[in-house]
Amino acid sequence: MAENTDTATLTIKGKTYELPVHSPSGGPDVIDIRKLYGQADVFTYDPGFTSTAACDSTITYIDGDKGELLHRGYPIDQLASKSHYLEVCYLLLYGELPSADELETFERLVTNHTMIHEQMHNFFRGFRRDAHPMATMVGVIGAMSAFYHDSTDITDAHQREVASIRLIAKMPTIAAMAYKYSVGQPFVYPRNDLDYAANFLHMCFSVPAEEYNVNPILSRAMDRIFTLHADHEQNASTSTVRLASSSGANPFACIAAGIACLWGPAHGGANQACLEMLKEIGTVDRIPEFIARAKDKNDSYRLMGFGHRVYKNFDPRATVMKESADEVLDLLGVENNPVLQVAKELEKQALADPYFAEKKLFPNVDFYSGIILEAMGFPTSMFTPIFALARTVGWISQWKEQLADPQLKIGRPRQLYLGEMARDYVDIEKR
Ligand code: SDX
């Protein structure tokens, strides 16, 4: 816990209270209000938690003004260019970059857990073929607590570790199965001779009828997309996982809750919504029409892939993602992809528009990821499942960190009640 470095004075109803102030490694100081309600009989009010720290953490740090994202202190652009997803998983889970031996052991452990219980295949067949893959993933991940009951005791450190590895290892298999089921193709088993990203692409795009060789540039881009989505402080889905876990729910149920929250278009669903928006715009000459709608106070329309609760300058992940988009589309010979042209022109026009500059609305991680995923052959419905796959390590790392906190208690926000106070029941004949 950070030490008290200052105190804040609050005067209310004629009484004055001293509140401890803690200084973090980075970011704003925090005023500790844990004793405020007991002392002053008042709540604080912060819908959306825009100014509230719900926990302390050592995993990820974001500086929204500088456009900085650190995982255990390492900048995201260095990790995206020099590391790879499973090494970043190790870093997020255990706090330090692994030695060569530690990495080899960790990768082998994940590789040996990529298959799912054979009986889970039947579970998929209960869904309609046209079910959104996110619906399938919420259901199947939640059901893992029924198939892997031996790693649901959150008080057992070994079981927490087993559940963590199982989830990181099996998410690609389950996401690929959700995709295969939606296109009516047979499930493809994971292969231990492929790395994490190549295995996922192989499970998605190979068919029994012929050999499928994973293009190394595409698997590198896939791995980079996983890395860029791995963790992101206390975003909505991570906060959902933490709140679910605070009740003692098992890890599979908590991750299923995180997947459900991520699905929303204001959060992880934005990559699908963004690509659908770019396709709706269709051509560069229609961009002004959509920008006008996004600026219209009487129109709730928003540019998907723009804006962020924390980044008020630029999303460092979008910068790296943009480079990958150029590489992948160049490789595929679709650098003239009309969607990419619209995306680049939309970004240029939006960033030149005072409305977006004033409101600090910049392309976020979802703006370019969809373009790469579509170029790789994924349908838009698979964009958010891929985000969920990548974010599982972040959810799990935050889940483990919270469970290790001796001060952990069940999360239970209060409210500003504006409803009726006590009144007597009125019989129907008198209403
Ligand atoms: C992710 O939290 C995380 O870290 C999330 C994430 C992660 O890795 O976990 O980074 C992943 O979710 C990225 C965000 C993806 N969502 C989108 O791209 C959807 C479009 N963006 C917006 O819905 C919005 O920008 C949010 C939800 C992302 C952020 O909203 P905020 O910070 O709460 O801002 P706001 O809704 O209060 O808007 C502030 C103003 C408003 O105008 P006024 O009421 O002040 O006049 O900016 C406007 C909004 O209307 N605005 C937009 C806009 N986003 C905000 N106007 C047009 N287009 C937009 N995209």
Question: What key attributes describe this structure?
Answer:
6 strands, 431 residues, 18 helices, single chain, 3-stranded antiparallel sheet, binds s-citryldethia Coenzyme A, mainly alpha
Structural notes for this entry:
- The chain is mainly alpha-helical and about 425 residues long.
- Helix content is about 50%, strand content about 5%.
- The chain has helices at about 35-40, 75-80, 85-95, 100-110, 120-125, 135-145, 155-180, 195-205, 215-230, 235-245, 250-260, 270-280, 285-295, 315-330, 340-350, 355-360, 365-375, 385-405, and strands at about 5-10, 15-20, 30, 60-65, 70, 75.
- The strands form two sheets. It has a three-stranded antiparallel sheet. Strands 4-5-6 form a three-stranded antiparallel sheet.
- The longest helix has 26 residues, at about 155-180.
- It starts with a strand and ends in a 28-residue tail after the last helix.
- S-citryldethia Coenzyme A binds next to α17.
